[in-house]
Structure formats: C-alpha cells, structure tokens
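Tutorial, part two.
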Amino acid sequence: MTFRRLILVAAAAIALPVAAQPFHASTPPTLWRDASRAFAERRYDDVRLLLPEATWRSPLDEADALLLDGRSLLATGQTAAAARVLDTFARRFPAHPLATDARLGVGQAQLVAGDLSAARATFEAVAASAPPNASAQASLWAAEVAVRQDDIPAALRFYDQAAARADDPVLGASALHGRAFQQLRLGQYDAAAATLEALERRYPQTPYAQGLGLAFAEAYTALGQYDRLATTVAPRLSDLQGEAHARAQLRLADAYLRLDQTADAAANFEAVAEDTSNSALPYRRPALFGLGYAHLNSGRFSEAVDAFARVREGQPDSLGIQAAFAEAVAYARARQDARADEAFARVVENAPASALALDARYERAVLLYRRGRFADAATAFEGFLNAAPPDDRRAAEALDLAANARVQAGDAAAAERLFDRAARATQDPSQRDAIGLRRAQLLFDARAYDRAFAAYRRLADDATTPDTKEAATFWAAESAFQQGQTADALAWAARSLERYPRGRFADAAAYVRAWSLFRAERYADAATAFERFLDGLGTGASSARYRDEAHLRLGDTYMALRRYDEAANAYSRATGEGRDYGLYGMGQAFFLGRNYPRAQRAWESLLREMPRSPWREEARYSLGYLHFVQGRYDDAIAEYRRLIAEAPNDPLAAKAQYGIADAYYNSDRPREAAEAYTVVLERFPASPFAADAAGNVITAYEDLGEGERGRALVARFQRSARPEVAEELRFRQIERAFARDERAAVRQQLEAFLQDARTPALRSEATYLLGDLLVAQGESEQGVRLLESVMRDEASPKRLEATGRLGDLYLAGNDAARALAAFQTLERLAPEGHAAAVESKLGQAEALLGLQRAAEAVPMLEPLYRDGNAEAALLLGMAYEAERRPADATTAYRAAARGDDAIGAEASILLGRLLLAHNDARGALQAAANAETRFDGFTDLVAQALLVRARAQTVLNQKAAARTTYQRIEADHPGTEWATAAARERAALGN
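Running the prediction step on this input gives:
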C-alpha cells in the first residue's frame, strides 16, 4: 500500500510539466492541440495516431513530440518502446529543461518492465546529477527498486538521501515515511519511532503525516514503551480506518493492560471485539483474550472466565489453548478449585506437547498443594518434573514444593530425596540456602527434632547468606531444646547470642538459653538468665510475646529455688494469655510460703475470672487442699465436690474423690470416709489412688470395729474388677505394705504375685521391688539377679531405676568394673535432661576413681561441677587429689562443702585432711568447724570431722582444745574406729 502510493506521486511529478508545454507556431496548431488534448484526457492511442502526421519545424518541437510520445507509450504499458523514446529524447536533447524528467521516465519504464538492476542504475545516476528535488525524486525511486530487490539497507540509504535533498515537503515526507516503514520491517524500532516523530514534527500538513497511529503502536509495542504508546496512539485512533484502526486499538488496549489501567484496557478490548464481530479481520478473538486478562487483573473472575471461554470454544489453535490455560487460572484465582483442576487437565489433554501443558501441570500441582491435598500435589509435581526439560526454570521450586508436600503427607524419606534434588537443581546459592532452611523448618514442624537439629547445624556452618546462617544457628538451639538435648541447646543458644547479639533471634535465643538452664536444673543460673532476659527485652511486638512466658518461667525457677515471695511476684507480672497459669503459680508460691490467705485469693481469682482456663481444675483442687491443711475439712469437701461436678472425667477427679475421703477421715467421720474411699474404687478403679483407697477402706471400717466388712468389700471389688484393674490394685496394696515396712509379709506377697501376674509392666515392677527387698534383707546375690533381669527388660518401667541401683550396689561391693559397665548402660538409656543422665556420669566417675583411672573421671565431672552439682564437686576433688592437683582439689572440695548434707560433710572432712597434709592446719580447723550442728544426723561423718578438728588443734599446739575434742569423740561415738583413733591420739599428747 505504501509504495504504490509513492509511485503515483512520482509519475505525477513527471506528467504535470509535460501537459503544460505550449505548441510552437511551426507545428500545425490544430494537430498539436488535438494530440495534447488526447494526452490530457488519457487517450494515449489517439496521441500516437496524431503525432506522426506532424511536421516538425524545429528541434524543440521534435523534443516536445518525443517526450509526449514516450509518455503515452509508458502510460499504455509499452515500457520497452517508452524507454527507447524517452532515452532518445534524453540523449538528443540533454540540455532540455525536461531531460531529467525523461531520464526518470526511462527508469520508471525499466521498473515497470521488471528490469530492476537497470532501473536502479538509472535512478542512482539521476540522483547523483539532478537538482535537489529531482535528485530526491530519483532517490525515492531508487529506494522503491531496492525494496523490491529486498535490499533494505540500500533502500534506507536512498530514503536518507531523498530526505536530505528534498525541498518539496511532499517529497521529504514521502522519504521519511518510507524510511520509517522499512525500519519497522527490519526491527529497528527505536529508529522507526524517531523517524515517525520527525515526520510528524517536520511535515505535519502532508498526507504522509496522517494515519501513523498503527506504525507508532507497532514501534512502541516492540520497545515495551507502553506509556508512550498510550499517549501517542490514543489521540490518533480516529485517523485510522478498518484493519489499521482495529490493530492499533488492540495494541493500545494491550498497553493499558500492561500499565495496569485495566478499565481503559477493558473498554478498548471490548470496542475491538464489537467492531470486528461481523468482520473477517482476525482481531476479535485476540481482543476477547485481552479482555479476559483485564477482568482477571481486576479481580472480576467470572467475567474473565466468560471471555476466555469465548476465545477457546471450538478453536483448538494456539490462542484457544492459551485461553483455556488462562480460564483455568481465573478459576484458581476465584478459588473454584474443582473447576480450575478440570480446566488445567483440559489443557494437558488437548495440547499435551505444548509449553502451556507443562505450565498447566505445574499450576495444577500448586493448586493441589494449596488445597492441602499433599499426596496428590507431590504426585503432580513429580509428573511435572518428569515432563519438564532438565533446565526448566521451575524445576528447583517444583522439587522444593514436592518435598514440602511429601513432608506434610508424612513421607519423610521421599521428602529428603526431593529436597536433595531441589538443592542440586538450583544454581543460586541463596535459593539453595532457602531450600535448606525450609527443609529444616518442615522437619522441625513435623517434630522430627533430631533431624531438624542436624539440618540446622549444617546450614549454620555451610550457608552462604548471613540471614540463613543466623536463622539456622538459632533454630539449631530451638531444635535441640525441643528434643531435650539440653547441653546442645545451651551451646547453640550461646553461639547465637555471641554471633548475633542484636539479631532478629536475639530475644528468642536468650529465652532458649534461660529455659535450657532451668531444664538442666541449674536453677540459680536460670533465674539470672531469665532476669537478664527480661531486663534486656525490647518493647516491640516481637519481644512482647516472650514477656509473659518469661515471667512465668522465672516464677517456676524461683519456685525450684524455694524463693516463694519472688516466685509470686514473677507470676503476678504475667498479664496476657498466661495470666491464668500466673494466678495458679502465684497461689502455689503463696501456699508453699505459708501465706494461705493470699494463696486462696489467687486461686479464687482464677476460678472467678477465667471460666475456660485449663488450670481451673488444678486451682480448684489446690483450693480444696488449702482448706484441708488448715483443718477446714467441710470447705475442702465442698471444693473437691465442685471439681468432680465440673470435670468428672478429668484425672484430678479421682484425686479429689480421694481427698473427700481423707477429709472425712481426718475430721473423725470414719463411716463417711469409708463410703468416700469406696467411691474411689467404684468410679475410679484404674486411678493411682485405688490401691490406697482400698487399704483405707479397711482402716476406716476397722476404726468402726467393722474391719471384716472392709476387707470383704475390698475383696469383692477385686473379684468384680477387670483383671488388669484387680491386678493393679493387688500390686499397689503390696507397695503400700512395703512402705509400712511390713517386709516379711511383703516378700511372700511379691513372690505369690509373680507366680500369677499377667501384666508385664506390673511383673517388672514387682521383680524390682522384690530384688530391692532381698538386697535390704542381706540376700544380695539373689536380689542382684532380679535387678539385672529388670535391667535387661527393654519394656520395663523400672529399667532406669534398676540399672542405677545395680551400679550403686556394685560400688558398695567394691566391684568398680561392673559398676562402671552398669552406669555406662544407664547413660545410654537415660533421655537427655533426665536425672538418670546425671546419675550415670557421677556413677561412672566414682567407678573410675575406684579403678584408679582418675584422669578419665576429670573431664566427665568438670561440666557437672560447673553446673553446680555438689556430688560432682566432691568426686572431682578426689580425682584432682589423685592426679596430684591439690590446689584444684581444694577449690572443688570447698564448693562441695557448702552444703549441710552428707556430701557437704564428706567434702569438709576430705578438705580438712588435704589442708592438714599440706600444712594448713588453720584451714583444716575452719573446714571442720560446726560439724556437730551442720552434719547432725550423719553420726560417722560428724566423728570424722571432729577427728580432723582435733588433729588440726594438735598441729596448732592447742593441746587443751584438742584433748577436749578427742574426749568428745570417745564419749559420743563409743566403740567406733573413730573413738579408738581419738583415744590413741589423745594419749600421744601426754600431759
């Protein structure tokens, strides 16, 4: 369209001067006039008939006739003849004013004849020698030829020449117009846009400057300059008609869509669709497709679905497949998951080999994941991965999501494999870190804390991004804490605080550290840690969530330290979600501190203000017990009855019923007590109170003089109870007799019980009890065998106790090797944080000392010593002393000697002896000071401490004091080895 118009303009430029030429007088006027009129009227054959009859009177007349003849030949398509005539004219009359026009006519004739090379040479020659406008005209024709030769770079060069040489606005505009469209053809969109802008700026009144909206739209679309497209094309739409209008408006609508001007986009897409609804132009479906996206981006999902459906229906082409995919996306955005699922499946079914089918597989998998159908989602992601090329950009993310889905579906092994593949699939270290962090977090959320801990540890060491390292370090501490690995939790919390003291996990890490200290029973350190944590806690929301919890845990810590007033104060500061536990804990603190009125007020506040608190039953029972210990038995009974009425199935209900019975018994109402104990048997036969209730039923009826009735009632209950309950009751009665030291009867009962008991756990408990009883009665060999059988029983609830008891027995029997083996077994069995774990370390250390392997005991004891364990301090002092490290031994003994128990006594004795051995008699005297009062109840240890005192006094030449101390030992501990030593050493003093 463009170039046909250009040719007509050029032809007109040649024809107009010829038609204006006057006839000379030497030519017959009538004949000339007739020929000229015939040419003007385009009767070219008549021109040819008239001119040969003329008689030319001059060369000028002949030149005019030749030119008119050549033009006529050209106009009638006789291009070869026209070229010859016009070329003759140009050669015979080179100075003629129209010689250049004739040469242009020659080129035009060559062009029409299809001799492109000759035409281009002719036009180039004219352009090189002609005046500016003619040169510009020739350059335009040369550009036309170059375009036909598909030599677009040359065409652009000719257009540039024409634009530079033209004085005529139409020629200049034509040159810029042609250049712009060929630049568009070459994809030189920046240059095309600049040329179009220059055309409008320089030649705004020419026809070529009109109707450029589509050209601008194509250029700006390709450049992605949608804002310029919108402002440039919108006001030019009215200049366009037909296909150009539809196409430009489609481009404009797309620009609005990309600029997020969805209302304008929708309006223009709708206009295109409506204007082309009855047209053969291929723009209606693209317009509906764009309209669908405009609705989709505006959240009008049902309208979007309708538009996309109209595009795809009956049209299984590429656009139809795209519309089907977009329709599925619209359903998904509208949360119509079932329809979205069907729509994505339709894309895969109709175009299984297309890229959109792969997209549909992926989106469907994401949809299933979002719906919580994790097993199906994992399968879908794996199907996508099987269909996708190895370098698909979504592979790593799909593997990551598939792994997450497998974790959620409970398939940890498959999740691990997928996470590993996801990490290998990504080349981005930060994405690899993120995948690793999510993997570890999901393991944590799934409560696979051991595996989460291992994963976080690796990330903390190996991650490339600082944020990941920081997060992994904290979560390693949290994972260790959650699985009860207190030592690891402390170590990683300390690492987090050391490396990231002002990081986003600083509060959380400090909290984990304090909690871990509490769990390790390092209560003094835990209290300090919680206090510092609260002092340093910020005021933001991320910190505030820890505040209440920290006050509650600080209260628990003070309770463990028996600092009840401080505990109550800490509990009182919990004002958020934990306030109910704070009130309960406050009541406990006041109760243990014997401040009964305030304890009562705290529990009553909880019951009055918090009807849904999970601590109501605890508070209700505690309130009843508070009345009980103060002798207000009827009030206690009332509270216990309220608890049973409010929560009949709570575990405390059995305890409350037992408390009712005890209250009746203690208020000297044995009949009511017996009846209440009987209720325990009837309503709570499987509770841990049933055995004691059975015994107390008998006791209460005995007080009434009806003992036989009580025994019959209990026997009847045992016979009617379920076998496992009857067996449990029978064993608990044996335990009760054991606690009352009825050893002879208990032995017979245990042996009989083991003959016919069927419950494995009870049999194991009975075996342990019998073994312990036999050891106490001096039958150690048989008792040890029973305890060893319990230790070997992996399902026994007494396995830990039996193992520790055996270790102690082996130590007492000077069998250090077997003791070491037993305590090593205990270490393997004990969960981290369990008291047995500490007991195993202490036992191993004592056994190693017995085997004279003190060097091995030292590293085992030092961590416990640092945690404040007094027994560890005592044993460590002995190990240091064996290793000939008296200064370290002295320090350890002093730490152990602070207590007023047996450990403190033994440590004081060993300290005194060590100081005496190193000539520090005054220190030894101080170590043994106040032994009688500090260690009252430990007779032998008091005697030994007094002996250290007497020896120190002797060294200090305090003979009178030494003699008095020796005499006291002899008087207070007669017949002991210590009294014998005292008598001998007193005699050695002389007078």
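DSSP finds 55 helices and no strands in the chain. In part three we will examine how such features are distributed along the chain.
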